Amino acid sequence: MRVPLVVISIFISTLTFASDSLLFNEIKNEKDWQKVVELAKAQNKLLFVDAYADWCAYCHQLDEEVYTNNQVIKYFNNNFINVKFDTESEYGAQLANIFGVSSLPTLFFITEDQEIFDTILGFIPAPALMAYGQRAVDDFAQLPILEKKYDDLIATNEEKLELIRILENKDFERAAEIAKDYISQLKLVDYLENVENLWLVSRFENHLSSAPYGYMTTHKSEIIEAHGIDEYEDYFKTIYNDNLQLAIKYGDENLLYQLIREVLPEFLPEVEIPEAAFITKKLYFGQRRNYQKYQFEVNSYMNNHVAADSKVDFLFSNGLEIIEDQEDVAMLQFAANLLTQATAINPTHFEAAALLGYAKGLLGDYDVAIAQIEKAKTIAQNDEQKEMADSLILAVQQMKGS
């Protein structure tokens, strides 16, 4: 009698438990991949997928330190179809592209429908991999049960929260849809009794016109009493970060200034707000390439908030930041102007003098740049600074010759 291939595969997999290392199915072509997918379907298991390359040191560290762990071997052989593919092989490169591999090692838990259930980036020790694996198994088993309960309108609030958590990695749009429905029914008492509701709204309903944001700002003392100042401030930090990204993306200056006016004071001491507001505006105007306003904010903050004995460091750090981040000629000229001011205040500041020369080089004033760096070299205080000056001169010479 012919034994079905699936049965043979199941039998073979049971023989791997005695191994001193976790055994993987190595994927070299589409046929290999389809076999493991079919095996996952037959056994109703997730695929555990290791995307690697021969040159990847952390990939080898996983092989040597993690996949030899007895707990990992037993648990992963029992609960997953274990798969490896070389991202630099012909078919492995295709899989890497399909699953969006951008760094190595990358580990996936993938469903029989070839959808990513969870992702681990980078090296992970055995105990942490066990925790990921156990969570993946539990979530995979619970997901269809929770989805049916939700669809049948019998899911409890705790079950809805669990469903949203599981779906966030697998199907964010569906998670957001359920979260929006859940959040619409929340009252103040729900935020006071369950801190998970704070975390949920910070991820899914955090715009400044939302009802949850209104609850947080108008019931500050109750929220802090219920959950502590750290939870309250963490909520507003998330609000700040997410909404600043939105403001930058859509060019919304009203939102920018609302964040500065309303949100920063909720998690920062008053003395720190001017600097935080300055950094916020620099991020916004820099990303939006509104360089005129960027320059205005730098000059304004320097004139109104920077003490005389801190001005050189301020000028230097802002000049360096622009040179590192910008290629716009007007901004590079602004950086050169800042560094010129710094060297005027303190002619012995080596870093400012040397960086000014490099900025001149970026602007195409090569002879002036080299002369400026040579001048900076005369005030170098140690061999390291002299070597830095020589490196900058070489860099400008290369610019000139290119």
Short description:
The chain has 402 residues and is α/β, with parallel strands linked by helices.
Overview of the molecule:
The protein is an alpha/beta fold and 402 residues long. The protein has helices spanning 5-14, 30-43, 57-66, 70-79, 90-98, 126-151, 157-170, 172-183, 188-193, 195-204, 211-218, 220-227, 229-250, 253-267, 273-287, 291-305, 311-325, 329-345, 350-362, 366-377, 383-401; strands spanning 25-26, 46-52, 80-86, 106-110, 116-121. It has three domains: 25-140, Glutaredoxin, CATH 3.40.30; 198-305, no CATH class; 309-401, Serine Threonine Protein Phosphatase 5, Tetratricopeptide repeat, CATH 1.25.40.10. The protein contains 21 helices and five strands. A five-stranded mixed beta sheet has the order 1-3-2-4-5, with helices on both faces. Helix 8 (172-183) packs across helix 10 (195-204) and helix 14 runs antiparallel to helix 15 (273-287). It starts with a helix and ends with a helix.
Shape: flat
Major sheet: arrangement of strands: 1-3-2-4-5
Q: Describe the main β-sheet briefly.
A: 5 strands, mixed
The poorly predicted ranges are: 1-18
Q: Rg, please?
A: 29 Å
**Fourth-tier CATH superfamily name of the largest domain:** Glutaredoxin
- Total count of strands: 5
Q: Return the CATH topology of the largest domain.
A: Glutaredoxin
What is the succession of H and E elements? HEHEHHEHEEHHHHHHHHHHHHHHHH
- Percent helix, as a range, is 55-70%
Number of helices: 21
CATH second-level architecture of the largest domain: 3-Layer(aba) Sandwich
Q: Percent of residues in beta strands? A: 5-15%
Q: Number of folding domains? A: 3
Structural class: alpha/beta
- Please report the first level of CATH classification, the CATH class of the largest domain: Alpha Beta
End-to-end separation: 74 Å
Rounded average pLDDT = 93
Pfam families: Thioredoxin_2
Organism: Roseivirga seohaensis subsp. aquiponti
InterPro entries: Thioredoxin-like_fold, Thioredoxin-like_sf, Thioredoxin_domain, TPR-like_helical_dom_sf
Domain Thioredoxin: 12-142
